[in-house]
UniProtKB/TrEMBL annotation:
Domain Fe2OG dioxygenase: 247-346
Pfam families given in the database record: OGFOD2-like
Keywords from the named record: Dioxygenase, Iron, Metal-binding, Oxidoreductase, Vitamin C
InterPro entries with a match to the protein in the record: Oxoglu/Fe-dep_dioxygenase_dom, Pro_4_hyd_alph
Biased composition annotated in UniProt, kind: Basic and acidic residues: 1-15
Descriptive protein name: PKHD-type hydroxylase
Length: 465
């Protein structure tokens, strides 16, 4: 599949189903039917791997959808070129059909309930620090990080980033006062939840403590954080796992310590790229341990010694890694540790990944299997070398000639000169076979000549008698 040009057609065409309540420009039954036909004509198209930066996407703020309108605008840049000039409702239905694969009916109901949950919070909860809801970069980030982002080059990023282990990047990011504000905002929200007897939704199935930042109004701030400050980094360091096409996120805080979660089991994140920032407070323990990047097929495979790395949290310091980088958290033995996490996702990468079979560019086990196949191929070629050499030597000895010396100048075999060596062997084998054939023909000719002369002598004797 081409990464730049028009997307290839699939071998089989699948009829698209238009979900009710699509929104957009057409609202009538006829319009919906026409949209279904038009979408069906393009349902065999694949998304582009890299976005079309020259295309200006439309706004989908007026459509009815369970997903953020920004997801559709971001995804539109990945549409096949033949679809970019189509009406908005056709593009919307096409993208919705793709995204619906990740949102089955039960999940859609859950999303709807979640929207109602957020609406109740926004109507009743009063923020404590309004300045963190509207990000001002100069007050949010440390100067070194902000300067590197403004320069927006790999060299500027590497000047502030450490890579203590392959694929794990650490750097100073948030100002101390922002960390304190975020901590007090989370505490204020949890206090309000307790007093209002409001049932809080936890960040994920593994953490029993913490809160989803998107739920109480911080989603726009986190959108900006991902788009303007995480994406530039992920495009450079995680381009092979969708880092250049991040279009959604899940932002939350987790809490560890006494009367909270103590540790976190071995797992992978539901993200392409994960940002993890320690907000504080005072604590001991809680180190993260990493054990290699894996695809779905190898997620439970063993790790190699070089893939083992332990990381100790520092307040204000950020950690950036692939979501598929397996990790866990050791017990926080004392104090209270709070971390802000943002799971950054790419719907484009997830769609394209379904058609891929080789993940050796980022999965450690796939890469090892690929190297093992290459090693076996090299061993097979070396074995072929020995068999051919022995065969040539045996033919040379059998011929009784000195043709065996003709192979003394044959170069040593290796992966680079195998093809040329095989040609040499082939030519010299042919020459040896021709040489033997000529010799056998000569012997046969002399035998026939002798038999002919003997026959002539017998005929003379018969005549004389």
């Amino acid at each position: 599949m081409s990464s730049e040009g028009p997307a290839d057609r699939r071998e089989e065409s699948h009829k698209a189903t238009v979900a009710p309540g699509g929104g957009g420009e057409g609202n009538g039954a006829a319009s919906a039917a026409a949209a279904a036909v038009r979408v069906g004509n393009f349902s065999d198209r694949r998304l582009r791997l890299n976005p079309n930066k020259d295309h200006k996407p439309e706004s989908y703020a007026d459509v009815r959808s369970d997903l953020d309108p920004g997801i559709y605008s971001a995804l539109e840049r990945h549409l096949p070129p033949s679809m970019l000039e189509l009406p908005k409702d056709v593009k919307f239905q096409f993208m919705r059909e793709i995204l619906s694969k990740y949102l089955p009916e039960g999940e859609r109901n859950r999303v709807q309930k979640h929207k109602e949950y957020r609406q109740k919070i926004s109507e009743k909860y009063k923020p404590l620090h309004k300045e963190i809801y509207n990000m001002h970069p100069s007050s949010f980030f440390v100067p070194s990080f902000l300067e590197a982002i403004n320069e927006n080059t790999e060299e500027s990023f590497r000047s502030i980033i450490s890579e203590p282990s392959p694929g794990i990047y650490t750097f100073q990011m948030l100002q101390p006062k922002i960390c304190d504000m975020l901590l007090s905002e989370v505490e204020n929200f949890e206090k309000w939840v307790h007093e209002a007897r409001f049932r809080i939704m936890r960040p994920n199935t593994m953490n029993k403590y913490g809160a989803v930042l998107d739920d109480f109004g911080l989603e726009p701030m986190l959108d900006k954080l991902m788009d303007e400050f995480v994406c530039p980094l992920s495009k450079v360091f995680f381009n092979n796992v969708g880092g250049s096409s991040l279009d959604s996120h899940h932002g939350f805080v987790v809490e560890y310590g006494q009367n909270r979660d103590l540790e976190l089991g071995f797992h992978v994140d539901d993200s392409e790229v994960t940002l993890n920032v320690c907000l504080g407070k005072q604590f001991t323990g809680g180190e993260l341990f990493f054990r290699g990047v894996r695809c779905d097929r190898h997620v439970n495979s063993e790790y190699q010694p070089e893939e083992s790395y332990d990381y100790s949290h520092v307040p204000g310091q950020a950690l950036l890694h692939r979501g598929r980088h397996r990790h866990g958290a050791r017990a926080t033995t004392s104090g209270h540790r709070v971390n802000l996490l943002m799971w950054c996702r790419s719907s484009v990468f997830r769609e394209i990944k379904k058609y891929q079979k080789d993940f050796s560019s980022w999965c450690g086990e796939c890469l090892r299997e690929k190297k093992e196949r290459q090693r076996q191929a090299v061993n097979a070629m070396r074995k072929l070398e020995r068999v051919l050499t022995m065969s040539i030597q045996d033919d040379s000895v059998t011929s009784g000639k000195k043709s065996g010396n003709a192979f003394d100048d044959l170069p040593m075999f290796n992966a680079e000169n195998l093809q040329s060596n095989l040609k040499i062997i082939n030519y010299r084998c042919i020459w040896g076979w021709l040489d033997a054939a000529i010799m056998e023909f000569s012997v046969g000719f002399f035998m026939l000549e002798g038999m002919w002369e003997a026959g002539k002598e017998l005929r003379k004797k018969d005549i004389e008698v």
